[in-house]
Write a structure and sequence with these properties.
This protein is mostly beta strands.
Length: 424
């Protein structure tokens, strides 16, 4: 192993330049290269270079062209102090590459370091753009420092199973599946992010805390199956997509000042979730909290729609604040066995089986409604309002005194007319 002398720069440089199609705009001049090779420095030819090149230093190179170092399996260290852009597949499949130095790099294009399985750390303090799959399958990567990066593309760090630390303080966009399968990642802070893509952190089993203080839009399955996630610091958000936090079995509370929509199955099967507060949420979609067996309190005072099976199977749910709710859809509170009472002063519609199996429900307060709500079938089946298991009906439905006569003859309500009570 030895450092090439000045006399030998040309032969090695010719090989490297041939790999980038003789494009001098993307590669440094011959005299800007310093190369250490395990083979004879006079050896030329692409195959020899690809098999033997171990170290590459480009003093004045400002660009790394597409495919230049692709599949150079012996390459272990690269240093490019002036490089500003790394093009597609530039270091793809360099499976011995361990160390890089790119202090001025501003963009890393798609697949640039794909499957660099020995790469341990990456530090690019000025990088603004990380392209799709740029570092995908870098199994040994443990630290990624991109403090000024604004864009992380789809699959950028996917399946980097050893990744523990990521600095993305200025990031505004995280693409689909960007960190999917990063099993060792235990903390993520995205204080300026406005969009987090689908499955971005899916299956990050060690992730325990997510700081999302800018209130991003969260797409579908973004944090699904993050089995260690206990805290999501997000005072507000635009939308939470379907299955966004599904099966986050350690998540114990959800609190947002503002959220337009909580998507279908967004928090389904979050078995440790106990408290939900969404002060200004417009819609809670189907199965959003289904199977949250520890959930005891829901505060959603301005929610208009509680959709199908939204809280079905929440057996510990005892307190629900939803005073502006207009529509309670099918199975919405099915089998919420601890729910003893609920007030729906603005209710217009109650769907099929909405309270079926709510074995503690003794009071439905509709005392402030302005018209008789539509009601589906089997709404109060297996509740104290109609009785069950040979028990006499003891529950009550409060209605405004001026609507009492309309309630007791209305379709669906007439069947429980003996349980309807007028209130002033």
């Amino acid at each position: 192993m030895y450092l090439t002398s000045d006399a030998n720069y040309l032969s090695i440089a010719q090989t490297l330049r041939s790999l980038c199609h003789t494009s001098t705009s993307y590669m440094p001049s011959e005299m800007a290269w310093h190369v250490i090779s395990a083979a004879c420095p006079l050896a030329t030819g692409n195959e020899i270079a690809r098999k033997t090149l171990r170290y590459a230093v480009g003093k004045s190179a400002t660009y790394i062209a597409s495919d230049v170092f692709r599949e150079m399996h012996s390459l272990s260290i690269v240093r490019f102090p002036e490089c500003v852009s790394i093009y597609v597949r530039a270091f793809m499949d360099c499976d011995s590459l361990e160390t890089t130095y790119f202090p001025k790099c501003t963009s890393v294009m798609a697949n640039a370091f794909l499957r660099c399985s020995s790469l341990r750390e990456i530090d690019m303090p000025k990088c603004a753009f990380v392209g799709p799959a740029a570092f995908r399958d870098c199994a040994s990567l443990s630290m990624a420092n991109f403090p000024t990066c604004g864009f992380v593309g789809a699959n950028a760090f996917r399946d980097c199973v050893g990744l523990k630390s990521v600095d993305l303080e200025q990031c505004r966009y995280v693409g689909d599946s960007a960190f999917l399968g990063c099993e060792a990642l235990d903390y993520i802070s995205l204080p300026n992010c406005s969009i987090i893509g689908e499955q971005a952190f899916l299956g990050c089993a060690a992730l325990s805390i997510a700081d999302l203080v800018a209130g991003p839009e969260i797409k579908s399955s973004t944090f699904a199956n993050c089995l260690s996630l206990t805290s999501v610091r997000m005072p507000s958000c635009k939308d939470i997509g379907q299955c966004a936090f599904r099966s986050c079995t350690c998540l114990d509370h959800v609190s947002y000042d503002h959220c337009v929509t909580i998507g279908s199955s967004a928090f389904a099967e979050c078995e440790s979730l106990r408290f939900v507060s969404v002060t200004r949420c417009g819609n809670i979609e189907a199965r959003a909290f289904s199977g949250c067996v520890a959930l005891s309190t829901v505060f959603a005072p301005v929610c208009r729609d509680i959709c199908g099976a939204a809280f079905s199977g929440c057996v510990a749910l005892g307190s629900v604040e939803a005073k502006d709710c207009e529509n309670v859809y099918y199975d919405a509170f099915r089998d919420c066995r601890s729910l003893a009472s609920i007030a729906l002063p603005n209710c217009k519609r109650i769907g099929n089986n909405a309270f079926l199996g709510c074995t503690s429900l003794s009071l439905l307060d509709l005392g402030l409604v302005t018209a008789v709500p539509e009601i589906g079938s089997s709404v109060f089946e297996s509740t104290p309002i109609v009785g069950y298991d040979d028990a006499v009906a003891t529950g009550q439905v409060y209605v405004p005194s001026h609507l009492y006569d309309d309630f007791v003859v209305a379709s669906g309500w007439s069947e429980i007319s003996s349980r309807i009570m007028s209130v002033p």
